[in-house]
Design goal:
It contains 10 helices and 13 strands. The chain is an alpha/beta fold and 324 residues long. It has 2 domains: 201 residues, NAD(P)-binding Rossmann-like Domain (Rossmann fold, 3-Layer(aba) Sandwich), CATH 3.40.50.720; 93 residues, UDP-galactose 4-epimerase, domain 1, CATH 3.90.25. Strands 3-2-1-4-5-6-11 form a 7-stranded parallel β-sheet, sandwiched between helices. A two-stranded parallel ribbon has the order 7-10. A two-stranded parallel sheet has the order 8-13. The radius of gyration is 19 Å and the shape is globular.
Length: 324
């Protein structure tokens, strides 16, 4: 039986990865500071542990794993990443986790390690025009991310690539673009835009008003969780290191994202634009390279993923209201 280690298995992407690996017949160990919030873990062995601590990492990496997935990070949506209030924690915590995990995997002679980087590594100067952002993989340098979260991700990319060159580790690196879906943060200040819009629409009566940071003309693309998992597995099991974008290339404005949620809910709402943290003006996944190297690109439409996500968030809102 093949064995896999999922770091950050209590989080959104990590918990979905555990489920998929179990479906494929893997023995899976998960590790995180917490269990998954919205259901029981599917891992064979789940360890509550702090990967910032070397001794914890040594205890977790106690055997040869066929595949290691490193999702653990201090992160969240725009309201967490772009205020500047959490920069020191983000860089310190995520940096330590990656340094520890790589060192322990190297010492156990574990070869295949996946690292989840982010589209936030791309230079701000290439994302000023909301209609024409440049997020091709080779545009990452000269580096100029718009947040310290992006700088930490870029440093960690180089860390993994150094272990690949110097120690022969088969690292795989993906730059995720706004992954969303059921069982993700939706009301704790770390939620991404799709979940936030679903929550606001679900909580608001028809003909009411919702708030949105900025003018809503900033652009993004959003990738449904199942597609993220599929792309990650294909990359990890390929003979290609990356880094590569894993994201949708269906670019929309945040206004359009909110309108999609309203359409799914069957509601007509007014948007009130207010000041708030925004990130770059425009961002979209360039999928040319992943299609060339892996013969694959995401196929879910935003509407399809949002429909599933809205139904889940709506149920969470109802359950939360019933407890008040």
């Amino acid at each position: 039986m093949k064995k896999a280690l999922v770091c950050g298995a209590g989080g959104f992407i990590g918990s979905h990865m555990v489920k998929r690996l179990k479906e494929e017949g893997f023995w899976v160990r998960g590790v995180d500071l917490k269990y998954p919030e919205f259901g029981d873990t599917h891992a064979d062995d789940f360890v509550i542990g702090d990967l910032r601590e070397q001794q914890v990492c040594r205890a977790i990496v106690d055997r040869r794993f066929d595949e290691v997935y490193q999702f653990a990070a201090d992160m969240g949506g725009a309201g967490f990443v772009f205020t500047g209030e959490h920069d020191a924690d983000i860089m310190h915590n995520s940096g330590l986790i990656n340094l520890n995990i790589l060192d322990c995997c190297h010492k156990r002679n574990i070869k295949r390690v996946f690292y989840s980087s982010s589209a936030c590594i791309y230079p701000e100067y290439n994302q000023l025009d909301p209609d024409n952002p440049n997020c091709a993989e080779d545009s990452a340098y000269p580096a100029s991310p718009d947040s310290d979260y992006g700088w930490e991700k870029l440093f960690s990319e180089r860390l993994y690539l150094a272990y690949h060159r110097n120690h022969g580790m088969e690292v795989r690196i993906a730059r995720y673009h706004n992954i969303f879906g059921p069982e993700g943060s939706w009301c704790d200040g770390r939620e991404k835009a799709p979940a936030a819009m679903c929550r606001k629409v679900a909580e608001t009566a028809d003909n009411g008003e919702i708030e949105m940071w900025g003018d809503g003309k900033q652009t993004r693309s959003f990738l449904y969780i199942d597609e993220c998992i599929e792309g990650t597995l294909r990359l990890t099991r390929s003979d290609w290191t990356g880094p590569v974008n894993i994201g949708s290339d269906e670019m929309v404005t945040i206004n359009q994202l909110a309108e999609t949620a309203m359409e799914i809910a069957g509601k007509k709402l007014t948007i009130k634009h207010i000041p708030g943290p925004l990130g770059v003006r425009g961002r979209n996944s360039d999928n040319s390279l992943i299609e060339k190297q892996l013969g694959w690109r995401p196929s879910y439409s935003l509407k399809k993923g949002m429909d599933i996500t809205y139904r889940w968030v709506e149920e969470q809102v109802k359950m939360a209201s019933s407890k008040i």
